[in-house]
RNA sequence: GCCGGCGUGGCGAAAUCGGUAAACGCGGAGACCUCGUAAUUCUCUGAGCGAAAGCUCUUGUGGGUUCGACUCCCACCGCCGGCACCA
C-alpha cells in the first residue's frame, strides 16, 4: 500500500493525500460548506461512504444532497433507521431486505403478527428518536464466520450470507444498536435523516418468491428537504384526486358491479363515448396505413388453443372450458378467447398467399377475456374482459423493419401527437427459454433495432426480456404526474406461423413461411381510457369529451332559443345538452364546471336579440367570448376534427 | 392466488368495552325564484305498505353466539394497499 495517493477531483485537479484519507477529509480541505453538504462520494464510479478510507490513486467526486445518487443513499439509510426502530419495538422481528426504491424505501420483516397502522405510528416516532440520537453509520468488513455469528438469530440474513461468493467482501453496517449485513453506502450518521414518513405496510414474499414465506413490508419515503417531502405527499394526493375509479364514478363513465363480476366493465353512456371516439380514431388511422379489418367470434373450440400452443401452457389465464350442451358431443369443448392471434392466423391461412400479397395486416378492435388472478384487478387498468386494439401483420423477413417502422410512427402519432403522452421504449431480446435458432433471433432483433434507430428513438435494452416466441418492443407511457403504464407492445413471432403452417409462395415459386407481428398500440382500450382519465384528470379534450357543450339559458325566456341552438349543434355532430332547469345561473355554471364540460354556451336576452352566444370555456372563469352562433359552431368543428388538446 | 385492512341509504359518511342504525353533508323531489357567469331560500328524502296514525323490513351474503349483533365467531362474495403474476 503506497504512503501517498493521488486523488483526482471532477475539475481535473489532482491532490496528493496520505493513504487512508477519506472523502470527508478531502471535502473538509476544500471547504467547510462542502463538508457540511457532503452525503457520500463517488469513487471511481462507485458510491462510497464519506468516511471509508481511500487506499489507492483514484477519482473522487463529493456527492451533496443535490445529486440523485445521494437521495438513494439517504433512502437506504432511512431503511436501516426503520429497521433500527422496528428492532427496538419488536425485538423478535427478523430482518429481510431493506433497499431504496423510487421515491422512498422499504424494509421487510418476519414478525409473529402483521403491523397495524398504530404500530407504524409508533415505529415512525421511534425512527425520529433514532435519527435524533445521530448514531454514526459505521462500516466494517468481516469474515464469513464472524458474519454468521453476528446474524445467528436472523435466518433470512444467514440465507443471503451463504449466497455471497468467497471472493466477495462481506460488509456490515451498524447505527447505534442495529447491525445489518449490507453493501452500503450510507449517510455519515442517522442525524442526516430529517424529512421522512412511513406510508403503509403490506405483505411481500421473501425474495419475491410466491412459494416462500410472506414477510411484512413497511414502505416509507425520505427527502433531503422538507419542501421535497411535502411536494411528494402533495403528488400522492394529486394522484388520488385523479384516480380514474373515483372520477369514473363522479363523471358517470363506467361501473364495475359485483353481480357482473370483478374485472368486467359496464361502460355508461359517457364512458362509451370515450371508447367510441378512441376506436374511430385508431381505425381511421389504420385504414390509412393499409390495414384490413376483420371480426372473429368470442368463443371457439378449445382445439384451436391447443394447436396454437396456449393450452395447456396458459390455461391458468383462460376461463374454463364449456360444453355446447345437447346435440353436440360432450367431448367438444369451447373456450372464450383470451387473444385473437389464432383466429387471425386462420384468416391468413384461408387462402393461398403470394409474396406480392404481403404484408397482410389484419386488425380487430375486439374483446378477449383473461382469467387474471383476483388480486391483480385494478379498476380499468387491470381487467378480465379487455378490448384490445389488436392487429397481426404477416410479412416477409425483409419487410419486418419497414412494418415496425410504421408501427412506431403510428405509436408516436397516437401517444404523443394526439394525447401528449411522453413514453419510454424497451427492446426485449431473446430469453433463456426460447424457441427457434439463434440466427433467426439475430435477424429479428436486428430488424427491430434498425427500425428504432431509423426513427431516431432512444430505447433501453431489456436483455432476455422477450417472449419465448420472439423479441418485442414494449412502450410505457408516462402520464401527467409521471407514472408509467404499459401500453403499446410490438412482438415478433416465428412460432405461430410454424404451428399453423402458414405459407406464401415466393418469387421463386416455392413455399415460404411468413413472419407474424403482434401489436397493440393503445394496448387495451380499458387501460388506455383509465390512463386518459387520470392524465386529463377528467377534463378531456373536446373531441373526446362525452359532453362537449352545455347550453345554458339565463331565464326561461331564452329556453326555446337555447333548445334551438342545442338542436342545431347536435345536427352538426356536436355532443350537446341544454340545461334549462329553473336553477340559478350560478348553480348551473358551477355544475357544468364540476362535470368538466369543455364549453358552456350561455344564452341571455342580449344573445337572442343579436344571434350570438356567450361562450365560457372550461376553467376560464369569467372570461367569455361573445360570438355568432355560426362562429361558435365553426370553432367547435375545428377543435373536434383537429383533435386539439386545448379547449381554446 | 398470498398477507393485511375494509364492506352501513343514490353518494361521502356518523354511530362499535354488544343497547333507539343512518347524525352531518352531497345528490334527488317539491315549492319559491326568472336570475348575466362556481352552490338563493324553505320543506321532504333508507326501503315497502298506508289517506293518516302507524306497521314491516334494512348495516355485502349465509350461518352461529346472545335477552339483544353494524359491533363478537365461522364460511363465502367483493373492494382497497402491497406481493407474486401479466403471451
Layout: helices, strands, pairs:
Layout: E1 4-8, E2 14-18, H1 23-30, H2 32-37, E3 38-43, E4 46-48, E5 58-64, H3 68-89, E6 94-95, E7 100-101, E8 104-110, H4 117-133, E9 137-142, H5 144-150, H6 155-163, E10 170-175, E11 178-181, E12 195-205, E13 214-223, H7 226-241, H8 244-250, E14 254-255, E15 266-267, H9 269-288, E16 292-293, E17 299-301, H10 303-308, H11 310-313, E18 322-323, E19 333-336, H12 341-349, E20 360-369, E21 385-395, H13 400-418, E22 422-428, H14 438-454, E23 460-462, E24 472-478, E25 484-493, H15 495-499, E26 504-505, E27 511-512, E28 515-524, H16 525-535, E29 549-553, H17 559-571, E30 576-578, H18 585-594, E31 599-603, H19 605-610, E32 612-617, E33 625-628, H20 629-641
Parallel strand pairs: 1-5, 16-20, 22-23, 29-30, 29-31
Antiparallel strand pairs: 1-2, 3-4, 3-5, 6-8, 7-8, 8-13, 9-10, 10-11, 12-13, 14-15, 17-19, 18-19, 20-21, 21-28, 22-24, 24-25, 25-28, 26-27, 31-32, 32-33
Helix pairs in contact: 3-4, 8-16, 13-14
The structure holds one RNA strand of 87 nucleotides.
- Given helix and strand content, the structural type is alpha+beta
Roughly what percent helix?
A: 25-40%
* Silhouette: globular
Beta-strand share of residues = 25-35%
Largest sheet: 8 strands, mixed
Strand order of the largest sheet: 16-20-21-28-25-24-22-23
Radius of gyration of CA atoms, rounded to a whole number: 31 Å
Number of helices: 20
Mean pLDDT across residues: 92
Low-confidence stretches: none
Secondary structure tally: strands: 33
First-last Cα distance: 71 Å
Amino acid at each position: 500500500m503506497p504512503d501517498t495517493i493521488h486523488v483526482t477531483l471532477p475539475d481535473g485537479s489532482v491532490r496528493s493525500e496520505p493513504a487512508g484519507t477519506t472523502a470527508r477529509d478531502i471535502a473538509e480541505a476544500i471547504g467547510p460548506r462542502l463538508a457540511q453538504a457532503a452525503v457520500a462520494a463517488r469513487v471511481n464510479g462507485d458510491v462510497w461512504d464519506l468516511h471509508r478510507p481511500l487506499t489507492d490513486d483514484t477519482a473522487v467526486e463529493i456527492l451533496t444532497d443535490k445529486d440523485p445518487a445521494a437521495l438513494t443513499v439517504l433512502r437506504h439509510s432511512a431503511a436501516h433507521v426503520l429497521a433500527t426502530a422496528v428492532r427496538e419495538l419488536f425485538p423478535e422481528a427478523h430482518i429481510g431486505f431493506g433497499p431504496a426504491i423510487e421515491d422512498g424505501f422499504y424494509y421487510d420483516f418476519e414478525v409473529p403478527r402483521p403491523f397495524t397502522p398504530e404500530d407504524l405510528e409508533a415505529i415512525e416516532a421511534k425512527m425520529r428518536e433514532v435519527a435524533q440520537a445521530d448514531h454514526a453509520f459505521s462500516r466494517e468488513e468481516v469474515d464469513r464466520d464472524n458474519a454468521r455469528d453476528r446474524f445467528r438469530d436472523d435466518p433470512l440474513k444467514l440465507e443471503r450470507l451463504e449466497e455471497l461468493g468467497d471472493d466477495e467482501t462481506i460488509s456490515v453496517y451498524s447505527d447505534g444498536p442495529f447491525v445489518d449485513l449490507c453493501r452500503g453506502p450510507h449517510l455519515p450518521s442517522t442525524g442526516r435523516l430529517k424529512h421522512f414518513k412511513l406510508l403503509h405496510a403490506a405483505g411481500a414474499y421473501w425474495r419475491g418468491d410466491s412459494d416462500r414465506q410472506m414477510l411484512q413490508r413497511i414502505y416509507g419515503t425520505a427527502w433531503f428537504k422538507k419542501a421535497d417531502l411535502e411536494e411528494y405527499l402533495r403528488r400522492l394526493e394529486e394522484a388520488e384526486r385523479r384516480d380514474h375509479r373515483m372520477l369514473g364514478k363522479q363523471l358517470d363513465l363506467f361501473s364495475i358491479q359485483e353481480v357482473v363480476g370483478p374485472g368486467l366493465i359496464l361502460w355508461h353512456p359517457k364512458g362509451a363515448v370515450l371508447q367510441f371516439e378512441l376506436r374511430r380514431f385508431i381505425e381511421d388511422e389504420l385504414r390509412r396505413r393499409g390495414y384490413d379489418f376483420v371480426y372473429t367470434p368470442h368463443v371457439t373450440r378449445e382445439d384451436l388453443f391447443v394447436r396454437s400452443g396456449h393450452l395447456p401452457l396458459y390455461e391458468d389465464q383462460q376461463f374454463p372450458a364449456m360444453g355446447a350442451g345437447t346435440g353436440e358431443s360432450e367431448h367438444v369443448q369451447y373456450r372464450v378467447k383470451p387473444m385473437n392471434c389464432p383466429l387471425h392466423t386462420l384468416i391468413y391461412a384461408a387462402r393461398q398467399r403470394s409474396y406480392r400479397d404481403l404484408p397482410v395486416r389484419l386488425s380487430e378492435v375486439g374483446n378477449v377475456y383473461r382469467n387474471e388472478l383476483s388480486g391483480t384487478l385494478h379498476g380499468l387498468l387491470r381487467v378480465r374482459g379487455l378490448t384490445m386494439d389488436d392487429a397481426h401483420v404477416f410479412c416477409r423477413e425483409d419487410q419486418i423493419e419497414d412494418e415496425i417502422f410504421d408501427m412506431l410512427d403510428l405509436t408516436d402519432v397516437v401517444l404523443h401527437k394526439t394525447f401528449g403522452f411522453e413514453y419510454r421504449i424497451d427492446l426485449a431480446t431473446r430469453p433463456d427459454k426460447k424457441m427457434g435458432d439463434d440466427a433467426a433471433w439475430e435477424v429479428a432483433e436486428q430488424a427491430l433495432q434498425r427500425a428504432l434507430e431509423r426513427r431516431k428513438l432512444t430505447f433501453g435494452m431489456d436483455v432476455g426480456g422477450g417472449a419465448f416466441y420472439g423479441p418485442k418492443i414494449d412502450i410505457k407511457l408516462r402520464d401527467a404526474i409521471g407514472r408509467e403504464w404499459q401500453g403499446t407492445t410490438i412482438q415478433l413471432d416465428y412460432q405461430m406461423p410454424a404451428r399453423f403452417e402458414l405459407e406464401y409462395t415466393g418469387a421463386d415459386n416455392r413455399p415460404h413461411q411468413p413472419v407474424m407481428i403482434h401489436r397493440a398500440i393503445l394496448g387495451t382500450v380499458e387501460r388506455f381510457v383509465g390512463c386518459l382519465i387520470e392524465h386529463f384528470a377528467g377534463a378531456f379534450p373536446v373531441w373526446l369529451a362525452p359532453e362537449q357543450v352545455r347550453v345554458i339559458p339565463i331565464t326561461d325566456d331564452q329556453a326555446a332559443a337555447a333548445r334551438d341552438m342545442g338542436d342545431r349543434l347536435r345536427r352538426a355532430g356536436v355532443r350537446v345538452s341544454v340545461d334549462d332547469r329553473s336553477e340559478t345561473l350560478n348553480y348551473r355554471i358551477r355544475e357544468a364546471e364540476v362535470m368538466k364540460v369543455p364549453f358552456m354556451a350561455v344564452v341571455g336576452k342580449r344573445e337572442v336579440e343579436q344571434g350570438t352566444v356567450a361562450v365560457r370555456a372550461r376553467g376560464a372563469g369569467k372570461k367569455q367570448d361573445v360570438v355568432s352562433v355560426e362562429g361558435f359552431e365553426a370553432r367547435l368543428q375545428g377543435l373536434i376534427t383537429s383533435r386539439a388538446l386545448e379547449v381554446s
